[in-house]
Amino acid sequence: MITPLKLYAQTMPYIFARLGLALLFTFFSGVLLLICLRLQDGLGLTLAQLIEALLHEDLGEDGPLVAVLCPWLVGTIVLRFITVRYAGYLLKAGHIAVVSEALAKGVVPEKQIRFGKQAVLERFGTTHAYFVLDMLVDGAVDQLCKAVSKVGEAFENIPGVSAVSGVAQLFLRIALGHVDACCLALTFHRKSGNAFKDAADSVVLYFQNWKTLLKNASVATLVCCALYGVLGILSLIVFACFMDMDETGMPAAFAGVFFFLAVKTSFIDSWVMIKMVAGFFEKSKDTEPAADLYGKLADLSSKFRDLLRRSGEDNQGI
After folding, report:
1. What is the pTM of this model?
2. Which residues have a Cβ under 8 Å from the Cβ of 175 and sit 6 or more positions away?
3. Domain-embedded: residue 58
4. Which domain holds residue 230?
């Protein structure tokens, strides 16, 4: 059986492709920021004035600064959705298809980029459905993390509670945030001719094997804590390297934050995804979904009910 670490090493083309997307997003966002800062210089105003005005909700004479920085904020949000979120998810789906094939056959397919592209095109409808599911899951996980954060704030006077709260939030993101990746891997593997039926079965199997998933998430959380610490130190070094570029420190902050996010998104998130998918795949590939879970999940999620409905209508596959 091929190990997650070996899979990670052998599917580096996808990981570097994700890094390329992150750098592309960073480049265009950086160019937009520089343009906005140039416009700001033309107004004779400082970035500190804008920040202070926004914090105190007193724009007054600094109103023009808002008009300068808002295009960067809006443009960055749009760029992130197109590159990191949507294009990045399609790339991630191709990576998942390759991982699924390698886990099933013990070897990574030749010409893996072409293999992943073909797999995504063949089941584009299901892949897109999981993209929507991924956004819904992210929203639900964010709500759970906010709840954990509020609990931590209630006991903030107790030493170490904030750290425990942070680790708990990371654990939730890992345990629940990869439901789409695990289910999509099994959907690529089964190829029954009814993609939506495979998708519904995969979601049921995900929650059916919660013990294995929590165990894998616990290991991944510990590893991520260590990796984030190292990455944080490297990001501070990047921040220090750019400090002399501008007196506001904005370019340095931009470089440090985006370096952290680019490495996290491409290298660390890819490893976590492979770790979670491999554990789920091994446990679920020959397991039949529990019949009683369909109704329970349908009661909890309207999207899952829609998935069941479409699985009954779609007899042609995708």
Report:
1. 0.76
2. 213, 214, 217
3. yes
4. 4-313
